[in-house]
Write a structure and sequence with these properties.
Elements lengths: L1 E5 L3 H8 L6 E3 L2 H7 L3 H11 L4 E4 L5 H14 L3 E6 L2 H12 L4 E6 L2 H9 L4 E4 L1 H6 L4 H13 L7 E4 L5 H9 L4 E4 L1 H8 L2 H14 L7 H11 L7
Parallel strand pairs: 1-2, 1-8, 2-3, 3-4, 4-5, 5-6, 6-7, 7-8
């Protein structure tokens, strides 16, 4: 499963991308609005940082407008994936854009039948909202599993399942176990995932024990050892 970050905050993207775990980024009008910056400038800057798909959402509500915005957004950067809401007009726009070779992420999916339509319209990604589905009293993980199964039984559908609306680490695990191709995760959740008290305690214990070693500069020791053997080394 690939991992995307769900944000338009450049500092957050730079920090998490440096971890070496991200394959892409998703945004939406709400996220972009919070940045207070020019929409196109933000999207382009993200694309220059993230070497992978970056979802940029249209705001038009009619098919013609979605298609026009989608075509223009696709020209901003090769990494752009046009994000379209799962509405009748969105399906029409998805079909046109997909047939033209533009990648489309159909968003706001809440039931498997919607995902089937998105797949038939040629969507590159379908974004079921796990967290919001849970809020409705249903099981977001079951939604992912049903969509994955539907797609697996249809050879003419090549849409990837992109789990969205992930609120906590358990949602991410559920998405991975349910067969999602991608999960897009907010910065705050990613920070929680990498944090664990036992990891911190174990690391502190290692450092305490190592502090008693007389020669404890690992880089200096390795450099000297390699130099003695005439081996090349980095700095």
């Amino acid at each position: 499963m690939n991992l995307f970050i769900d944000t338009a905050n450049i500092d957050e993207i730079r920090e998490i991308y440096a971890w070496g775990v991200l394959s892409g980024c998703t945004t939406n009008p709400s996220i972009i609005a919070k940045s207070g910056r020019n929409f196109i400038e933000v999207i382009h800057e993200i694309c220059e940082i993230v070497d992978g798909p970056v979802s940029a959402e249209v705001v038009a509500q009619d098919a013609e407008g979605m298609i026009r915005e989608g075509r223009l957004l696709a020209q901003v950067h090769p990494n752009i994936v046009v994000k379209v809401p799962l509405l009748p007009a969105g399906l029409q726009a998805c079909k046109v854009l997909s047939d033209e070779g533009t990648r489309v992420n159909m968003t706001l999916c809440f039931q498997p039948a919607q995902a089937l339509l998105a797949g038939l319209a040629g969507a590159t990604y379908i974004s079921p909202f796990i967290g919001r589905v849970d809020d409705l009293g249903w099981d977001g993980g079951d939604l992912i599993r049903q969509i994955v199964e539907i797609y697996a039984q249809n050879d003419n559908i090549h849409t990837q399942v992109l789990a969205a609306s992930i609120r906590h680490p358990i949602h991410l695990i559920d998405a991975a176990l349910s067969g999602a191709d991608v999960a897009t995760v907010p910065y705050s959740v990613l920070k929680k995932i990498v944090k664990h008290p036992q990891t911190d305690a174990g690391n502190a214990g290692f450092l305490k024990d190592w502090s008693a070693v007389p020669q404890r500069d690992v880089a200096a020791l390795a450099t000297a050892w390699l130099a003695e053997r005439g081996q090349s080394h980095g700095t």
